[in-house]
Amino acid sequence: MTEDEVYRASTQYRLWSFTPHALASLRAGTHALAAEKVTAARRSKRDVVSRPSAEGNGVDSNGAEEGRDASGGVANAADEVECLTLAEAQQLVDFYCSKAIELCNHLKWPAAVKATALQYLRRFYLSASPLTYPPSTIIKPTIFLANKTENHNLSLDEYAAKAKATRDQILAPEFIVSQGLRFTFDVRHPLRGLPGAYMELLSLADGTAEVLEGVGKTAEELQEELMALPHDTKKANGASAAEKAADVPSLKRRIHTAYIAANKALETTALLTDVYFLYTPSQI
């Protein structure tokens, strides 16, 4: 099987990959359903509270005040429940995602745990809404679930103490979170492939890379093409062997700088956006 075929068989591709339109539609549908449930629950609660005092207070059996139509007036105005808009709900999720990064950084957890926790949060809130599942109650259980998935092995009691939460606050929502994740806990991170790409580029810079069959070029030719890329110093095309050798350390420094920048972006910016839903790990 090719790498593409392996990825297409993963749950990340089959269940958590979307087009921008499909992703927006899914979120809109989830939010609309949650808003409807919140509104219905609010009305039901109000009806239960007001029912015992309905008789004798000028309210007929249909729930309308005397002298007013059952379909209008003040009665309907009270039915309105103001919920968060879709944009506001997404902003709330994004805010708690940033808080999750802060908590993981405070705990000094590996990047893989942090990245997995963020994807769990964002995946969960595709089928759930902050209107019905407040992120403040979901964030800590989700991070602990990522801790277990990534085999970081921090005990529940240690985590509860550091996260300032009780055991029940961490364990109680775990099944709901797992259900929202469709019990698919594997996350394919671009972070895992980045060090390999970094080492491969260093080998290309040295001219010692092992070239795969079918590339049609030697390691030296690939090195020349890499050194010919635009940069602050002169290009390697047409340079002598001594000049090329002298430029190799400069090229390696550029590769290292790019690696650091990419690693930082993947540990922060990428985790706070929808790139995991829209692109494959190699594209990210």
Automatic annotation (TrEMBL):
User: CDD domains of this UniProt entry?
Assistant: CYCLIN_CCNH_rpt1
What protein name applies here? Cyclin C-terminal domain-containing protein
* Stretches assigned to the Cyclin C-terminal domain: 189-284
Keyword terms, alphabetized: Cyclin
**Which residue stretches belong to region Disordered?**
44-72
Please give the Gene3D superfamilies that the UniProt record associates with this protein.
Cyclin-like
